[in-house]
């Protein structure tokens, strides 16, 4: 292997790539196989570090997008197929509830799907070879390439790449916007005070509450804003409610051995579900 190729392999980094079994890709579709492989990798990691005592683990839309670059819509379609095929189970678990997965022991099903993929691949290869042989026998003179078809294929490839980049860009913009919105609400509340369940909270009380929330708590607030983005009518009141509810819970809950007992640091917050539902629906 020459030096240039060595450099390419170093840049790509085989441990930081999206992969999938090619036979499963032919049987289920490439995106479904990629999602399945990503979930298997997450399960292996959590299991190795004893973070899933009940064999269930969570992976949010953003988390799986970061692992596969696949959009929310594509994730949902792929997960539905994997559930239908009996390869995984998916439901919301924990406090707060998160999209969680269970890897089914489906050895016979996997073997059958791999055989199906091999059959599809073999059939396609045979048909391609037969088609080329017929073209070779019937060719009397070189045919002109269809420039319009070539142009169409190029346009399609460019369009597909543009759509992928646009989806990724929109997801990144949404996440950054949520971060900025939460930060703005907190900054304003710490400067002017705010209201929580009808009671005025001074800037000092707000600052004290914010100081109780760690990095995982801030990430949870961002996750909530993403989850309820289409339902929240009063974003300021909703974020304020989460801040004080989490701060109160952090002060009253013993937080020990979180990393060893669970893959979710959020289980210990015991959030005020009534307030969450009220502000999420805008009642």
Structure description:
It is a single chain. With 283 residues, the protein is mainly α. Helices cover 66% and strands 7% of the residues. It is built from 12 helices and 5 strands. It has helices at residues 3-12, 22-28, 30-48, 61-68, 72-84, 107-138, 147-192, 203-211, 215-227, 235-252, 258-261, 273-281, and strands at 56-58, 88-93, 98-103, 194-196, 199-201. A 3-stranded antiparallel β-sheet has the order 1-3-2. A two-stranded antiparallel sheet has the order 4-5. A hairpin with a 4-residue loop joins strand 2 and strand 3 (98-103). The termini are far apart. The relative contact order is 0.09. Residues 253-275 and 278-283 have low confidence and may be disordered.
Question: Keywords for this structure?
Answer:
283 residues, mainly alpha, two-stranded antiparallel sheet, 12 helices, 7% strand, disordered C terminus
Uncertain ranges: 253-275, 278-283
Q: Estimate percent helicity.
A: 55-70%
Mean pLDDT across every amino acid position: 75
Main sheet attributes: strand count, strand direction, barrel closure: 3 strands, antiparallel
Shape: elongated
What structural class should be given to the helix and strand makeup?
mainly alpha
Give the terminus-to-terminus CA distance: 65 Å
Radius of gyration: 25 Å
What is the β-strand count?
5
Tally of alpha and pi helices: 12
Strand order of the largest sheet: 1-3-2
Q: How much of the residues is beta strand, in percent?
A: 5-15%
Order of helices and strands: HHHEHHEEHHEEHHHHH
Oligomer state of the chains in this structure: single chain
């Amino acid at each position: 292997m020459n030096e240039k190729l060595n450099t390419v392999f170093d840049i790509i980094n085989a441990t930081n790539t999206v992969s999938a079994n090619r036979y499963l890709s032919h049987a289920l579709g490439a995106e479904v196989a990629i999602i399945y492989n990503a979930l298997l990798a997450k399960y292996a990691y959590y299991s190795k570090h004893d973070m899933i005592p009940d064999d269930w683990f969570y992976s949010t839309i953003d988390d799986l997008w970061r692992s596969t670059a696949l959009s929310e819509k594509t994730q949902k379609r792929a997960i539905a197929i994997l559930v239908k095929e009996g390869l995984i189970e998916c439901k919301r678990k924990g406090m707060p509830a998160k999209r969680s997965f269970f890897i089914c022991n489906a050895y016979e099903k996997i073997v059958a799907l791999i055989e199906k993929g091999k059959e599809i691949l073999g059939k396609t290869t045979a048909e391609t070879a037969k088609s080329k042989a017929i073209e070779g026998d019937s060719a009397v003179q070189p045919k002109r390439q269809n420039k319009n078809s070539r142009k169409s294929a190029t346009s399609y490839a460019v369009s597909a790449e543009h759509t992928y980049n646009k989806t990724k860009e929109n997801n990144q913009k949404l996440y950054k916007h949520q971060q900025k919105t939460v930060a703005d609400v907190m900054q304003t509340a710490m400067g002017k005070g705010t209201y929580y369940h009808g009671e005025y909270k001074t800037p000092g009380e707000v600052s004290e509450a914010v100081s109780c929330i760690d990095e995982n708590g801030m990430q949870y607030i961002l996750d909530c804003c993403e989850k309820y983005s289409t339902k929240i009518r009063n974003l300021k009141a909703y974020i304020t409610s989460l801040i004080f509810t989490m701060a109160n819970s952090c002060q009253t809950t013993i937080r020990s051995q979180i990393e060893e007992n669970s893959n979710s640091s959020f289980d210990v917050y015991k959030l005020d579900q009534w307030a969450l539902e009220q502000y999420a629906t805008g009642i």
